[in-house]
Design goal:
43% helix; 4-stranded mixed β-sheet; two-stranded parallel sheet; 168 residues; alpha/beta; 7 helices
Length: 168
């Protein structure tokens, strides 16, 4: 952020900054929460949920994030910062239950693990400035999860080598 803002201030570089909330969807690297949980369950493994699962996150589907960036490029004001979030904030345990239900699994598939030290309880953004440009997310968390799970089911050849570490 600082370098972009400095380039704008110093050289009038026509730059804008976007900050997205937790983005998910196809091709999301399988170490992150949503793809990790989906792929673990597809492989018959339990899902490691941090702490009590009460950490809250705003989840934004990747296509909505991309449309938000395009909206800022087309309609934003140089030098400004735009937050892109869905305003659909849920606790991780609720998100986990949604994924489990979509895959026909019960809560016995959850393995509660020690939370990371200093792990934030909440990530959320005020996206009102982006909304004023005419951008709004269009994919609900429920729709996005259904689409994402379908993608991971259909694309095991993409994510299985990543989880096995074949890229190393």
């Amino acid at each position: 952020d600082l370098q972009v803002r400095a380039a704008f201030q110093t050289y009038q570089t026509p730059a804008m900054i976007t900050r997205g909330s937790n983005t998910y969807g196809p091709y999301h690297y399988p170490e992150k929460l949503i793809p990790l949980f989906i792929t673990n369950l597809l492989e018959g493994q339990r899902v490691p949920l941090y702490g009590d699962g009460r950490n809250r996150r705003d989840w934004l589907y990747v296509d909505d994030h991309a449309r938000g960036i395009l909206t800022v490029l087309e309609r934003g004001t140089p030098g400004e910062i735009y937050n892109l979030g869905s305003a659909e904030e849920v606790e991780n345990v609720v998100l986990t239950r949604l994924i489990l239900a979509e895959l026909g699994k019960g809560e016995e598939w959850i393995e509660y693990v020690l939370d990371r030290q200093g792990h934030d309880r909440r990530y959320a953004l005020d996206s009102s400035k982006a909304y004023r440009l005419g951008w709004h997310p269009t994919v609900s968390l429920s729709q996005g999860l259904t689409q994402t799970i379908a993608w991971y089911r259909a694309n095991r050849a993409w994510w299985e080598p990543l989880k096995r570490g074949e890229y190393r």
